[in-house]
Amino acid sequence: MRELRTAVIGIGNMGTAHARCIREGEIPGLALAAVCDLRPERLRWAEANWPGVARPADWRSLLDPALPLDAVIIAVPHPLHCEIAQAFLEAGKHVLSEKPLDIRLSRARKAVAAAEERGLVFAVMFNQRTDPLFIRAREIVRDPAFGEIRRSSWTVTNWYRTQAYYDSGTWRATWAGEGGGVMVNQAPHNLDLWQWICGMPCRLTARLGFGRHHRIEVEDEATLLTEYPNGATGVFTVSTGEYPGTNRLEICGTRGKLVLEDGGLKHWRLGEDVREVSGGSGEHSPRIPMTCETWRPEDKGPAHAGVLRDFARAVLEGGTPIAPAREALNELAVANAAFLSAWQEGAPVTLPVDEARFDALLALRQAESGSSRDPGAEALQPDGRYSERWSVRW
Ligand SMILES: NC(=O)c1ccc[n+]([C@@H]2O[C@H](COP(=O)([O-])OP(=O)(O)OC[C@H]3O[C@@H](n4cnc5c(N)ncnc54)[C@H](O)[C@@H]3O)[C@@H](O)[C@H]2O)c1
Questions:
Q1: Is-contact 209 222, C-beta < 8 A?
Q2: Cα(278) to centroid of ligand 1, in Å?
Q3: pTM (2 d.p.)
Q4: Residue 75 C-alpha to ligand 1 middle, in angstroms?
């Protein structure tokens, strides 16, 4: 099999995990040709552990034709994702970016256009899309037998983080370094799945809690109220400050209902569309035939390694990746709209988002941000392993 010469840009927590997976031969079709990081200690670590792998400090050096790369994986702080992606896409490389695709929809849209103009694979590490629970939920909701969605609500407050987590890298939880808090770091996984399963809202209202649970300038809690073109509504609550947290997604259709909680799924099927029964014979207590099934997948799917393997497959064999960057624009649109609403005293925001206004309001906050713009995380696991801090328990 042909192997794609791949560089991993940013070998902090996540980039090290991706590079290690490739280096240890777990990803057919990807070979680790280079790693890159601003921090000399990470490059020394790479030299000791991955001899023979190129390791510049400046990602621009990876554009040198003397180091012929096929693909790059971007795992640096989010505000840099699409700036770096764009440069490599323009140089004809395939790109897999960590989530979120970027912090600004306007920036991300340009990079997506660059990939599409050149027919390159541009994918995003939305690893939760490989979880059989969400794949099944999506199939059920998209099946006409579920009827039309009327309401969804997702409480995802099991993203608990300590102050030490926020202090572990000075880029974190600052407008300048990270570009937001829970809405750009943890929630993107859920916002992506929500739109993947339930579709895109056309309007939303948001309340964000800035530094509500931690000593940070950005939000560590958010509540969104969304409206959909068919009149359906949604509520999304996310927090890094509650313990123990909840992770419960409930979707009501006109012919069924779905609840995802505790690692399993409960699916009610109605024998008739509830709208016909409600508006029908005029009976006071009509009987609606109904069944209910529960299902629990055996595992959580291949996660990050699955997305890496799928990226290699999409480049080498063609076809759409699990999470194309174009679809990741949806998640970013919802997140940008939520910030806009919260910054404007909870005013409703209609999608598509006013990108220029979002960029201007974010720039104001970035200008006053307390970030020192130090890019490094000081609390990497000594062996470079993926930290348990990120595992989400249902
Ligand atoms: N998919 C997931 O489950 C998941 C989990 C954790 C993090 N992430 C994402 O991965 C990205 C990185 O997060 P992390 O936790 O690994 O952060 P981190 O701070 O541990 O690692 C970032 C690394 O990038 C390096 N860096 C910063 N600017 C750079 C530049 N200009 N050039 C080269 N290197 C640079 C830093 O020195 C650091 O080593 C974030 O966007 C985050 O959202 C995704």
A1: yes
A2: 52
A3: 0.94
A4: 4
